Amino acid sequence: MAIPLERRSDRWLSVALSVLFHGALLVLIGLGWWRFHRPAPAVPQLAIDATVVDGRALARAQAAQHPAPQTTPPPPAAQTVVPPAPTLTAPEQTGPPAPPKPTAEEQAQAERIAREQAEQKAQAEAQRQADARHQEQVAREQKREAEREAKRQQEAEAKRVQKAAEAKRVAEQKAAAQKAAEDKRRAEAAALAESEADLRRGIDAEQRAMAASGAAATWKQQIEAKLRQSWIRPPTAHEGIDCVLNVTQAPGGEVVKATVGSCNGDTAVAQSIIDAAYRASPLPPPPDPSLFQRELIIHFTPTD
Fold first, then answer.
1. Domain for residue 249, yes or no?
2. pLDDT in tens, 111-147
3. Coil/strand/helix, residue 143
4. What CA–CA distance (Å, rounded) separates 258 from 294?
5. Buried b / exposed e across 175-204, counting CB within 10 Å, b at 16+?
6. Are 81 and 109 in contact (CB under 8 A)?
7. Distance (Å, rounded) from C-alpha 186 to C-alpha 195?
8. CB 101 within 8 A of CB 36
9. Rounded to an integer, what distance in angstroms lies between the CA atom of residue 160 and that of residue 181?
10. What is the DSSP letter of 263?
11. Which residues have a Cβ under 8 Å from the Cβ of 234 and sit 6 or more positions away?
């Protein structure tokens, strides 16, 4: 349950009333103390046997019996007689006079004042305790609110850090994927280019080989034709001669060496083939200088 806050004007009014009340109370207490503790006049001891009556007590008694008249009757004659000064004993001359006892009305008033003071003190203490409880409750609520705010800020900061880390992770993954895709594309492009280059090189080599093969075949055919033209058939030669002629030539086609390997003819046939190689020197040059071969292996198969 929330305790209503005390307004500043109410507090100042309470303080002013409390000051006025305590001031009046102090004045009443001072008057009562002066009244009850002031020195009483020495009452002379009468030589006659009589009772001394205090005029104030008599006035109060008459006022209680006859409340209508407000005037105090004159004191009795006994109070007006001034007796001779009595002879006091030593203790009565030196000791202080006994204070008069307060009346019932004065006692009731003092008790009422004491009760009011106690009530005022209790109310002030209750108000102080209520204010203290209210301040404690406000402080606790402020502390709880500060803790809740700090917790909210911590949670927000944790979410922000987590979100930033997630965004960084996604960006790194995306960059890695893009790099991998780019590397793959480059590798594929390089592989394709290399494959195309290999294909072109293969085609070129094949074309060169085909061209060289054709040119070499033509060149060898030209050499075989010249060998056949230079060969003189011996009498022992028979049809279907097939011999292998090994020729060593110098650049320019000059035959420097000629030998016969396997041959189905006799020695005269083999020698005739060697002589034909020397007579055919210089041999026809190749169409492409790169086709030149120093060592030639020729299948010599003359036709009839």
1. yes
2. 899 999 999 999 999 999 999 999 999 999 999 999 9
3. helix
4. 12
5. eeeeeeeeeeeeeeeeeeeeeeeeeeeeee
6. no
7. 14
8. no
9. 31
10. E
11. 268, 269, 272
Cα–Cα distance between 82 and 45 in angstroms, integer? 10
Tell me the CATH number at 231.
Answer: 3.30.1150.10
Strand order in the sheet with 255-263: 255-263, 243-249, 295-300
CA–CA separation, 8 and 66 (whole Å):
51
| Bridge partners (DSSP) listed for residue 258 | 247
Q: Which residue is listed with tokens 């917790």?
A: 151
Q: Helix count (H) and strand count (E) of the chain?
A: 6, 3
* Residue 236 near residue 282 (C-beta atoms within 8 A): no
Range of the domain at 271: 219-300
In a domain, 173, yes or no: no
Number of domains in the chain: 1
DSSP-assigned beta bridge partners for residue 263: 243
Q: What is the pLDDT of residues 40-85, one digit of tens each?
A: 555 444 444 445 445 565 556 555 555 554 545 544 444 444 445 5
Which residue has 């054709």 as its token pair?
214
What would the pLDDT profile of 228-237 be if each residue is shown by its tens digit? 888 988 888 8
On the 0-12 / 13-18 / 19+ scale of CB atoms within 10 A, 90 is exposed
pLDDT given at position 117: 92
Q: Is residue 255 part of a domain?
A: yes
Beta bridge partners of 298: 245
Q: Is residue 248 part of a domain?
A: yes
What Å distances lie between residue 83 and 21, 80, 259, CA to CA?
A: 47, 9, 200
